[in-house]
């Protein structure tokens, strides 16, 4: 008998936990891609997507659900999610090639704001002032962290590369926000592993289609970095999908900012990059925004349980 996935439920703190862990794996993925050096975007997308299937297949085999891995009654929804997601991925990688890292990262943080807006408009989620405030506060913290290195924003006229990179980063944030909403809709009827597997196969096919445009010959170290980036990305994708299963998209979105905190930790631990005053101040603001969301969701949970208890005869 076919196993049916559990419906999406509201457990905000569980969703937030999955989101935080997924961010760590995505930081690992980005670090490995960066370490691979100058590799064509389409080639990076293929390796990141194709090898993301490894943890998914292992998880399905362990849970004895491999035979149902691709079973779905919503194939077009999966393809749409895959195309939007891979479009955002390619634009983000392109922005990284065209812009200094701080600018590319900071522009990418438009995504959480867009997720909150789209959640209200398209999903009908109730977005109160508390979530808006947390998103805005987190963005302020990220800008403070990046401010000393924001050369493009303070250099006057942009070059063509910088203008293209800026448009790519903002467009990538827009498409990534759209992908988050599509995931939120899919989790009501689909397994997390099925969503990730469909996405990985769709984006692998798109990446493979760039082969005629020229791929690089990879050294052993580059091959290792790209393969492992796919594995880390696959694990992160599963965890992120689970986050949207347990919490509303607008609740999870602000925790995207914590990637900057983890990036600071990785930079200091592995590369000896000493945090600046801007990093510490901005980091405290980002953490405060996250704590604010957790506190608010916990309070709302207590209120819901109290109301349910009072209404029970």
What does it look like?
This protein is mostly helical and 313 residues long. It has one domain (12-307). It has helices at 12-36, 41-50, 53-62, 75-98, 101-108, 110-122, 129-146, 160-186, 192-208, 220-246, 249-252, 258-271, 277-311. Helix 6 (110-122) runs antiparallel to helix 7 (129-146). The mean pLDDT is 79.
Cα-based radius of gyration, to the nearest Å: 20 Å
From the spread of the alpha carbons, the general shape counts as globular
Order of helices and strands: HHHHHHHHHHHHH
In DSSP terms (H or I, runs of 4 or more residues), the helix count works out at 13
Sheet bearing the most strands, described? Answer: none
Distance separating the two termini: 38 Å
Pick out the low-confidence regions: none
Question: Structural class, judged by helices and strands?
Answer: mainly alpha
How many domain regions?
A: 1
Count every beta strand, where a strand is a DSSP E run of 2 or more residues: 0
Helix content: over 70%
The portion of residues forming beta strands comes to under 5%
Average pLDDT taken over every residue: 79
């Amino acid at each position: 008998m076919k196993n049916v996935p559990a419906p999406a439920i509201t457990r905000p703190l569980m969703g937030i936990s999955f989101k935080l862990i997924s961010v760590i794996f995505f930081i690992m993925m980005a670090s490995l891609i960066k370490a691979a050096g100058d590799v064509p975007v389409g080639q990076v997308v293929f390796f990141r997507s194709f090898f993301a299937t490894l943890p998914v297949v292992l998880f399905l085999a362990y849970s004895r659900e491999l035979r149902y891995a691709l079973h779905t009654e919503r194939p077009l929804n999966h393809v749409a999610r895959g195309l939007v997601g891979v479009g955002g991925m390619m634009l983000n990688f392109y922005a990284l090639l065209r812009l200094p890292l701080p600018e590319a990262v900071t522009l990418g943080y438009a995504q959480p704001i867009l997720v909150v807006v789209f959640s209200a408009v398209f999903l009908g989620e109730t977005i109160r002032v508390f979530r808006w405030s947390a998103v805005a506060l987190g963005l302020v913290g990220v800008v403070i962290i990046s401010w000393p290195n924001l050369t493009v924003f303070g250099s006057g006229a942009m070059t063509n590369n910088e203008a293209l990179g800026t448009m790519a980063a903002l467009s990538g944030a827009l498409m990534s926000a759209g992908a988050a909403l599509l995931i939120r809709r899919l989790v009501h009827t689909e397994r997390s592993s099925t969503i990730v597997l469909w996405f990985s196969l769709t984006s692998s096919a798109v990446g493979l289609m760039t082969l005629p445009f020229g791929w690089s010959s990879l050294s052993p170290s580059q091959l290792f970095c790209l393969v492992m980036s796919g594995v880390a990305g696959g694990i992160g994708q599963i965890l992120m999908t689970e986050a949207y299963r347990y919490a509303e998209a607008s609740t999870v979105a602000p925790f995207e900012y914590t990637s900057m905190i983890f990036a600071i930790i990785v930079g200091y631990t592995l590369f000896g990059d000493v945090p600046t005053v801007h990093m510490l101040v901005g980091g405290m603001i980002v953490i405060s925004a996250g704590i604010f969301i957790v506190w608010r969701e916990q309070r709302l949970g207590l209120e819901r349980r109290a109301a349910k208890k009072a209404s029970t005869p």
